[in-house]
# Entry
Amino acid sequence: MEPNLGKILIYEIDSKIKEARLREMAKRINLEVVAVTKDEIHNKVGALAGLSGYELRDPDEEDLKLEAPSAEMVLFVGVDYQDIVDLLGTLREEDHSFPHKANLTPTTKDWSFRALVKHIEVENLIVRAYMRLARDCQAAEELNKELQDPEIIEAVEYAKALQGMGEDLSLRHIEQAQEKLNQALTGKTF
# Structure
């Protein structure tokens, strides 16, 4: 096997067993695992990843005022895509999931680790809410086949229109569509 020069930055992993399994599997494919602490999250991701041109720094007054995120995070740095898929797949089979994960990008290397964790946390909320809305729309369409209620049809179409928003899609948009669908379904009998 060719040596892997990548690493995995971890933060606030919620289970010591899960962390131990991640470390064990990472070691098998020659990946270094680096734990990021709450005292380090003000640093740029590039510095924590050990990238050339980045240096760790002490927190300033503003850094100390900001709340540390509590969400766990796994960040892959220079890791082969297939290694990521295999590692996460094996861990998922063992009931160890990592809802907040990312791969280092040219953009995120210049973010503070705190900002990255917060961004991934919000992104994850949006994805989960959107998936729930999509499931509810599918169920509403199925239930509405016989009834053909125009309010339900309109609410489903409204929700489906969110697909065209791309990066402008926010949690608020999804919540509004979910509320519209919930209202359309209230009091209906199928």
Observations:
- The chain has a mean pLDDT of 93.
- The CA atoms of residues 99 and 124 lie 7 Å apart.
- Helices lie at 16-28, 45-48, 61-65, 81-93, 113-147, 150-160, 171-185.
